[in-house]
Every structure is written in structure tokens, then in C-alpha cells.
Amino acid sequence: MLESIGQIAVNVKDTARARAFYRDVLGLKHLFDAGPSLAFFQCGGVRLMLSPPSGREHDHPGSIIYYKVADLAATHAAMAAKGAAFEQAPHLVATMPDHELWMAFLRDSEGNLLALMEEKRPG
Question: pLDDT value at position 4?
Fold first, then answer.
């Protein structure tokens, strides 16, 4: 059946503005552009495609993408220094048997809600 996610499309209003945000603020590796309205990035093993909606029926906010980070406090500070506007600072969401789940939430340049998450393990 399904093996993995190959690509995620994120709706944007302004591809150039979104390209700069995902590259310069989030720090994702820019792979290539296709024409003036598509920008592709690498995030782990998943390719992210930024593009305007293909029609009115697709012009809506997307799903929330949760980006794993190794050090949430440091990532939060670095992104905030680059102008990221966080809606929720890093906070504990749940205590699991083997780790704590911490998250922070922010909006990208296009108004899409994003999340940063860290699974803090003891030791």
C-alpha cells in the first residue's frame, strides 16, 4: 500500500514571498522553480511544493505541517530573529512514557499555520 509521502503542496498567494520565507526563515533547501509560480523545497525525505491554488475550489488553507526539530528553543529563537511571528511559543503538549512532546506554532508569509515539534527524551 502506501510507503511514504513524496510531496506536499502548500497554497500560496505570492510565490516569491513564500519562497523567501521557506528558504530564509524556515531554512529549507530550495531545490528548483518551475515557471514563475512553483517553488520546490526539500524537507527530510519529503518534497514541498509552493504554488498558487489551481482554481477557486482549491483556494483554502491547507493542513498544518508539523516540522520536527532537534532543539525547539534554539529553532524558535533563530526563526523569531529572522522575523517569524509565533502564535504560540514553545510549550509542553504531552508527557509520553519515553519522551515529552513540545510544540510551537507560527504562520508562514501566506497565512498558513505551521508547527514546530520536538520529542524531548531523557538523558
Answer: 80
Q: Which CATH architecture has domain 7-53+61-120?
A: Roll (3.10)
Measured distance CA(116)–CA(72) in Å, rounded: 7
> Whole-prediction pTM value?
0.85
Percent helix / strand / coil, the chain, rounded to 5: 20, 45, 35
| H-assigned helices in the chain | 15-20, 72-81
Written as nine digits, the cell of 61 is 488553507
* In the chain, where the domains are located: 7-53+61-120
3-state secondary structure of 50: strand
Q: What is the pLDDT of residues 45-104, one digit of tens each?
A: 999 999 998 888 888 877 899 999 999 999 999 999 999 999 999 999 999 999 999 999
Residue 109 near residue 21, CB atoms below 8 Å: yes
DSSP secondary structure letters along 85-100: -EEEEEEEEEE-SS-E
The length of the chain in residues reads 123
Dig out the grid coordinates for 121 from the structure: 527524551
